[in-house]
């Protein structure tokens, strides 16, 4: 199939008509302000490289504060959000709240993804499914990572939950930073320019990968390449790993510039 079809315009001239865009569904917390900017930005770079077009369609699940109770309540609504999104006949759904899944216990991304997948199938519009929690683990495994260091915006108990989740998958967390920001809107306003300093101070001797933002709400896209260049290690985020695994589900080879080696197409 070609990327353009010929169609006569009003003047009778041959004009290009782009093929329909791939529809990407997002399930995000109601207070998320980052995923719907970082993901389209990365896919825009992908479009420049491969000519594919993408549109984004969101369902929002209530969550204001990043607390255990609100995270579990959000997780309970994932199936309904997936059903609603599938009405738009999206090709893939990204469940974009890493800690909402990890708060349910080790390995919970597998169950969460299955719930979302079944919801789309039962609604008659089956879609591929990625969760940010599962994407992070899958991406770390693509690097054959055995040891990592991570930065999170969460309170310390939730950060420990994320550490425990990663370690339950057989990956050692050498060090973690907990910025202890409970308000999810405030997380979205965190300054990315602080991330290089935070990464620099991580105890990362022997680390295979640095996770610059283990949260899709904490902005990090502008810092990933700079931190990777400085540290000489692969640097990823919850958002970049979600983008990578979403592209893989679509069968599109990543070719995104200035977002780290993960999305460059070299992994």
From TrEMBL:
Its EC number is 5.2.1.1. The active site is at residues 97, 215. Substrate binds at residues 32, 97-99, 154, 184, 216-217. It catalyses: maleate = fumarate. Gene3D superfamilies: 3.40.50.12500. Catalyzes cis-trans isomerization of the C2-C3 double bond in maleate to yield fumarate. Belongs to the maleate isomerase family. This is Maleate isomerase.
């Amino acid at each position: 199939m070609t990327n353009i079809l010929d169609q006569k315009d009003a003047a009778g001239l041959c004009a290009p008509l782009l093929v329909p865009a791939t529809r990407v569904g997002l399930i995000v917390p109601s207070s998320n302000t980052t995923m719907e900017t970082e993901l389209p930005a990365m896919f825009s770079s992908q479009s420049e490289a491969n000519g594919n077009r993408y549109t984004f369609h969101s369902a929002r699940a209530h969550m204001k504060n990043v607390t255990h109770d609100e995270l579990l309540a959000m997780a309970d609504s994932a199936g309904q959000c997936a059903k609603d999104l599938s009405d738009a006949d999206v090709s893939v759904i990204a469940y974009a709240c890493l800690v909402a899944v990890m708060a349910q216990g080790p390995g919970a991304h597998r169950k969460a993804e299955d719930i979302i997948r079944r919801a789309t199938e039962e609604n008659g519009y089956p879609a591929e499914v990625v969760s940010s929690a599962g994407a992070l683990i899958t991406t770390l495994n693509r690097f054959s990572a055995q040891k990592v260091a991570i930065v999170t915006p969460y309170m310390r108990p939730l950060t420990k939950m994320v550490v425990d989740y990663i370690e339950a998958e057989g990956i050692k967390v050498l060090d973690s930073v907990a910025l202890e920001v409970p308000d999810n809107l405030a997380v979205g306003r965190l300054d990315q320019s602080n991330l290089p300093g935070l990464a620099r101070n991580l105890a990362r001797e022997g680390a295979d990968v640095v996770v610059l933002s283990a949260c899709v709400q904490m902005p990090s896209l502008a810092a990933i390449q700079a931190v990777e260049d400085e540290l000489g290690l692969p640097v990823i985020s919850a958002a970049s790993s979600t983008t990578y695994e979403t592209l893989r589900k679509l069968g599109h080879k990543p070719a995104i510039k200035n977002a780290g080696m993960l999305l460059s197409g070299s992994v």
